[in-house]
Amino acid sequence: MSNTGRRPAPAPATATRAGRASAADLETLICGVARSDQGAFEALCARAGPVVFGVVRAVVRDPSQTEEVCQEVLLEVWCAASRFEPGRGSALSWLTTIAHRRAVDRVRSERRAAERQLRAASHEVAYDEVAETVQARLDGERVRRCLGSLTSLQRESVTLAYYGGYTMREVAVLLSAPEGTVKTRMRDGLIRLRDCLGGTR
C-alpha cells in the first residue's frame, strides 16, 4: 500500500520524555551546583560543555580564546548557580546566555585593546614628531650660538654662502673683498663652527 498522503508518524513518546528529562537533568544539576556539589558541577560541565563551546566559538572564533572564555563561563556558573530561576527560563537558555555574554565581552575587550594599541602607537608617532621638532630647535639654537662666536667677517661669509646660497665669488663681491680672503674667512669660520658644535657638523 502506498504511503502517499500519509501524515508523518509522531515522535516516539520515549524521545519526548528523554528531551524533557535532559532539560530537567540540567536544572537538577544547576541546583546541585548551587549547593556547591562538585559532582553535579562535573556532570553539568560534561552535559553542557559542548553547547557552551559552540556558542562561544561562534562569537570569539579564536580557538585558544574560546577555551579561556569557556573556562570563564563555567566558573561563573559555579559561582552564580544560586541565581538560576527555573520559572524564568530553561537551564540551557540560562547557560547559553552566560556563554554568549562572556563571548561578546571578550570580543569587545580585544577590540578595545587593539584600539588602545593604535592610540598608543599614534601617540608615539606624535611624541617622535615633537621630539624631532624640539631637537631641531635645540640644534638651531646651538648653531646660532656658535655663529655668534665667529668674528663678524667670518659670520658674514658663512651666512651668505651656506644660508644665502651665494657662491664664493658672489660673497666676495657682496663683501667687497678679495675671493682669496673670503675663502680664508670661510675656512676659519667653518673650523670654529665645527669645534663649537663638538664635531657633529
Net shape: rod-shaped
Instruction: Give the averaged pLDDT, no decimals.
Output: 76
Enumerate the spans where pLDDT stays under 50 for 5 or more consecutive residues.
1-21
Q: Quick one: how many beta strands?
A: 0
Into which percent range does the helicity of residues fall?
over 70%
Number of helices: 7
Order of helices and strands: HHHHHHH
Structural Rg: 41 Å
- The proportion of strand residues reads under 5%
Q: Which structural class fits the helix and strand makeup?
A: mainly alpha
Oligomer: single chain
If you had to describe this structure to a student in words, what would you say it looks like?
It is rod-shaped, with a radius of gyration of 41 Å. It has helices at 13-34, 38-60, 63-80, 91-148, 152-163, 168-175, 179-196. It is mainly α and 201 residues long. Helix 2 (38-60) crosses helix 4 (91-148), helix 3 (63-80) packs across helix 4 and helix 5 crosses helix 7 (179-196). The longest helix has 58 residues, at 91-148.
Task: Please name the defining characteristics of this protein.
201 residues; mainly alpha; 7 helices; rod-shaped; disordered N terminus
Can you give me a brief rundown of this structure?
With about 200 residues, the protein is mostly helical. The protein has helices spanning about 15-35, 40-60, 65-80, 90-150, 150-165, 170-175, 180-195.
